[in-house]
UniProtKB/TrEMBL annotation:
It comes from Heyndrickxia faecalis. This is Carboxylic ester hydrolase. It is an enzyme of class 3 (hydrolase). The keyword Hydrolase applies. PROSITE patterns: CARBOXYLESTERASE_B_1.
Length: 492
């Protein structure tokens, strides 16, 4: 294995070369956020002497076990509070100035890792002559527990430690990526699910201004944030779970990181979110993006059947009990039940199919359209896509579910475990070629058009064109028109 040594601002790092790609793993981009730095903004890493071995992935953020994440191939070992590290794939640390792509992983802000096999950057480096960076950032209570109300000024940004970690990683990239053959003035941030929501937060945060130049949001937009009031309520629940009172906020510093990670399970799914704290996020990203992130092209899209991933293994839908299924609708849409039940008058219509369609629109498609509309109306360049390719596994029940597009974008279909999600149908490689090259083109030029696809016009609010990625790729005008008309006002 050929080694590769690069001098960073903080010391020399040893990587290795594999099949023409140079790789570094586990490079620290910030000081370990432990002890007095828990719940605090990240600080610059300490310089080191000698040559640091960066040939193994670093620790990942503490996170509770989640079966769905295991199914998606998320690594669940080597967890540590000292997790602020990144990984680099480059065609060569040779002084060239290549486009840089920085990936922010998903996982509901509570799970995930930059070292997942699907995020192997070798194909991007080889096929696109780009430098790829994947990062770990603080998750769950360690990354998004808002202590500003109880802990005062010292902890005013604690609800956004995970976002501040991402910003610290981008600052590291700006200062160091040239040594790895990357161009610090041509950085694309991209992410999926909570990673895409993080991209929206970064687009709207003044603290991230100037650190990136293009943005890709896969299956996530700008709608998921918490107000300080809601975030403080979550904090009180976590304290209660840990047997602490409001006055004991200082004792959180002594709670084992594993216990803090697992305490998140006492909250409803995806409760700990970036906080509109007036500092890191001065206002809600959906509003901020009416004026922020000027001249940053955006590529945004969703999968046709996003929510199927979250219902496919749920026994409620297998039992097919009409009363039970209607109860799920009523509980999920409690606030909007009157409006929803007025649209659905036939009790037999309360099916998994309908539930998935509404939730896909409500959680993913609608917010993505809203962000695209905002960008287009302010004269910014934005392109939209929809991923329609359906997985054949589990007799096709997964459909075009959440996270399915990732190995196509990354061209990591051959990574171990990926066939569990995609199956091994022969046509999938041609689609991976197309998506992969579109993302490369966007990183290079701020425009996803490439020779493998039909012409892909920028999004506008008149025709709403979107590239449909399926067995055949084509542009459709306003593919969400029917859903928008039916469900568009549901959450307003």
């Amino acid at each position: 294995m050929k080694t590769a040594i690069v001098e960073t601002v903080f010391g020399k790092a040893r990587g290795y070369e594999e099949k023409g790609v140079q790789i570094w793993k586990g490079i620290p981009y910030a000081k370990p956020p432990i002890g007095p730095l828990r719940f605090r903004p990240p600080e610059l890493p300490e310089p080191w002497a000698g040559v640091k071995d960066c040939t193994q992935f670093g620790p990942i953020a503490w996170q509770p076990p989640v079966e769905l994440m295991d199914f998606l191939g998320n690594p669940a070992e080597n967890m540590d509070e000292d997790c602020l590290n990144l990984n680099i794939w480059t065609p060569g640390a040779d002084g060239e100035r290549r486009p840089v792509m920085v990936w922010i992983h998903g996982g509901a802000f509570a799970n995930g890792a930059g070292s997942a096999p699907s995020y192997d950057g070798s194909a991007f480096a080889k096929n696109g002559d780009v430098v790829v960076v994947t990062i770990n950032y603080r998750l769950g209570a360690l990354g998004f527990l808002y202590l500003g109300e109880m802990g005062g000024e010292k902890y005013e940004a604690s609800g956004n430690c995970g976002i501040l970690d991402q910003i610290a990683a981008l600052k590291w990239v700006k200062e160091n990526i040239a040594a790895f053959g990357g161009d610090p003035d041509c950085v694309t941030i991209f992410g999926e699910s909570a990673g895409a929501m993080s991209v929206a937060a970064l687009l709207s945060s003044p603290a991230a201004s100037g650190l990136f130049h293009k943005a890709i949001l896969e299956s996530g937009a700008a709608n998921f944030t918490a107000t300080p009031e809601r975030a403080a309520k979550n904090t009180r629940r976590i304290l209660e779970t840990l047997g602490l009172e409001k006055k004991d906020v200082a004792k959180l510093a002594e709670v084992p990181a594993k216990n803090l990670a697992e305490a998140v399970n006492s909250l409803p799914f995806m409760s700990l979110l970036p906080v509109t704290d007036g500092i890191v996020l001065p206002e809600h990203p959906e509003r901020a993006l009416e004026n922020a992130a000027k001249d940053i092209p955006v590529l945004i899209g969703t999968n046709k059947d996003e929510y199927r991933l979250f219902t496919v293994f749920d026994p409620v839908w297998k039992r097919q009990d009409p009363k039970e299924m209607q109860d799920v609708f009523q509980k999920t849409f409690a606030k909007y039940w009157d409006a929803l039940s007025a649209k659905i008058t036939d009790p037999s219509a309360f099916t998994q199919e309908l539930y998935d369609r509404i939730m896909t629109y409500f959680v993913f498609t609608g917010p993505a359209l809203k962000l695209a509309d905002t960008r287009a109306q302010t004269g910014e360049k934005v392109w939209m896509y929809q991923f329609d390719w359906e997985s054949p596994v589990y007799n096709g029940t997964l459909k075009a579910c959440h996270a399915l597009e990732i190995p196509f974008v990354w061209h990591t279909l051959e990574q171990p475990g990926t066939e569990n999600l995609t199956g091994n149908a022969p046509g999938r490689h041609a689609l991976a070629d197309r998506m992969h090259q579109a993302w490369i083109a966007f990183a290079q030029n701020g425009d996803p058009n490439c020779s493998l696809l039909p012409e892909w016009p920028p999004y506008n609010t008149r025709q709403r064109p979107a590239m449909i990625f399926g067995q055949d790729c084509r542009v459709e005008k306003d593919p969400h028109q029917a859903e928008r008309a039916l469900w568009g006002g549901l959450g307003e």
